[in-house]
Structure to design on (242 residues):
């Protein structure tokens, strides 16, 4: 059981906060709760949670806006919960940068599985890189003047400015630099970045690539990720190790 990982449950329904909190605590996690986005921010500043479970429909700042702010600020990973369970609503949740999205009411065991999956994805790049590579230089790659540290999960533009990436954006960029100048289909990207056991939609991949491309294009005029019609996407730049 994991007695070190802290999960923050954010929901305006006190009964649901307690239900989710007690269930996760019963499986070994430390749990904090917050009733709205303002309380969530205070808790993040004071307690540094490892993951946030965030309700979409809350009074004041809604969950989508709060999730977007967390992603922009480089906060912890986010699983969104919402009574709005259509495919479109899930896609919107993923588009703002959430790591996963579950409709309410959800099975607590499914939520637990999603929590474990998101935490594994957050930890996996570091552990995999550490096991496979022996020196600091091996963990860094360069493309078109950009520098990506796979171990530290840090991307810097040609001027050396740090660029914040969500988990999904980092996973995609890592995949592109590991398979440069090759067309990757959506199915390949889904397989490599998340695996078949995680529910992800094609449009979510498109949206994440769009956000990643926008962040890259803001810093350079060079086209780096090209859409290959009816086939997928390709990183155009040559990748080197310094």
């Amino acid at each position: 059981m994991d007695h070190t990982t802290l999960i923050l449950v954010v929901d305006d329904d006190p009964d649901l906060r307690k239900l989710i909190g007690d269930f996760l605590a019963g499986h070994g996690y430390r749990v904090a709760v917050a009733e709205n986005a303002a309380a969530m921010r205070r808790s993040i500043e004071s307690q540094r949670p490892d993951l946030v479970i965030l309700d979409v429909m809350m009074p004041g700042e809604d969950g989508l806006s709060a999730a977007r702010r967390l992603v922009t600020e480089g906060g912890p990973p986010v699983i969104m919960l919402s009574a709005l369970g259509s495919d479109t609503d899930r896609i919107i949740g993923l588009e703002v940068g959430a790591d996963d999205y579950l409709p309410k009411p959800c099975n607590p065991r499914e939520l637990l599985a999603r929590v474990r999956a998101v935490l594994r994805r957050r930890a996996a790049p570091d552990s995999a890189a550490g096991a496979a590579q022996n020196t600091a230089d091996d963990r860094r790659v360069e493309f078109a003047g950009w520098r990506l540290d796979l171990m530290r999960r840090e991307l810097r533009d040609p001027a050396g400015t740090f660029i914040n990436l969500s988990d999904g954006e980092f996973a995609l960029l890592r995949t592109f630099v590991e398979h440069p100048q090759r067309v990757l289909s959506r199915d390949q990207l889904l397989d490599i970045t998340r695996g078949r056991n995680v529910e992800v939609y094609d449009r979510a991949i498109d949206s994440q690539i769009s956000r990643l491309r926008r962040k890259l294009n803001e810093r350079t005029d060079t086209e780096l990720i090209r859409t290959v019609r009816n086939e997928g996407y390709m990183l155009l730049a040559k990748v080197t190790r310094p």
